[in-house]
Amino acid sequence: MDVRYSELANTIVKNIKDGIYPVGSRLPSEVDFARQFDVSRTTIRSALRVVEELGLISRKRRAGTVVEAAKPASQYSKSLHSIEDLVNYASKTIRNVLDISEIICDDALATTLECKAGKRWLRVQILRTELTDRDHPICWTDAYMDPDDGRAILDLIKDGSGLLCHFIEQRTGRTVIDLKQQVGATQVPAAVAHLLQVEADSVGLEITRHYLDQAKKVFLITVNIYPKDKFKFTFWIHRDKH
């Protein structure tokens, strides 16, 4: 049931965002939804619970299920500033798409992505450059997404600014609820080094991000490599007053 209810939640979220269920309107009853999607009412309840947690609907006895908002009021909590920094960074750089291909994960890549070997991904290889000067590279990105999600946004994956996760949200109804970020040192591979204009095997910074949707499922992973002088990660740590 897990896969089915998460798919239904994504569909309902997308329909709300697209205005099929406008703000202020009532959603179909659980019985009608169950008939429409040929699933049990338990599955429908699970899907609606996910949508309710996003703040898009309210559910009250006798009043039914009412659409309260077209977009989640707040997708992130305590890590808001870091994620806003990520969005600002994406809006101020240019995404240069160099390759799009479907791949099968081998053992080494599975370890990096924390998934099972043999899993299929749509991989998008990107070189990010400065907004005003495409001759100055900032970052190399290997982005891995579910092939179905990838095919849904193929016409949007082109040179420009912005984040891939936003395109997926727009087309599939998936909403980024959690973002896991791992930061560590790496050696810049020779195949990437010349694009980043650094020496092969020189020291760089690797940031791997796992994007999780409202069903807590990973739907996008990005592995980003920065030359050592192109990125600085700053954060504050405060003593708990309690």
Brief digest:
The chain is of the alpha+beta class and 242 residues long. The protein is built from eight helices and eight strands, in the order αααββαβαββααβαββ.
Supply the key terms.
single chain; 242 residues; alpha+beta; Arc Repressor Mutant, subunit A; Chorismate lyase; 2 domains; six-stranded antiparallel beta sheet; two-stranded antiparallel ribbon; 8 helices
Structure write-up:
The chain has 242 residues and is of the alpha+beta class. The protein folds into two domains: 2-67, Winged helix-like DNA-binding domain superfamily/Winged helix DNA-binding domain (Arc Repressor Mutant, subunit A, Orthogonal Bundle), CATH 1.10.10; 80-227, 3-Layer(aba) Sandwich (Chorismate lyase). 32% of the residues lie in helices and 31% in strands. The protein has eight helices and eight strands, in the order αααββαβαββααβαββ. α1 packs across α7 (164-172). Mean pLDDT is 85; it is low at 74-81.
CATH topology of the largest domain: Chorismate lyase
Helical content class: 25-40%
Helices, by number, come to 8
Number of strands: 8
Uncertain ranges: 74-81
What's the level 1 CATH class of the largest domain? Alpha Beta
Q: Which structural class do the helices and strands define?
A: alpha+beta
Spatial strand sequence of the major β-sheet: 3-4-5-8-7-6
Major sheet summary line: 6 strands, antiparallel
- Bin the strand percentage: 25-35%
What is the averaged pLDDT score?
Answer: 85
Radius of gyration of CA atoms, rounded to a whole number: 20 Å
Shape: elongated
What's the name of the CATH homologous superfamily of the largest domain? Chorismate lyase-like
Order of helices and strands: HHHEEHEHEEHHEHEE
Structural domain tally: 2
First-to-last CA distance: 42 Å
- In the CATH hierarchy, the architecture of the largest domain is 3-Layer(aba) Sandwich
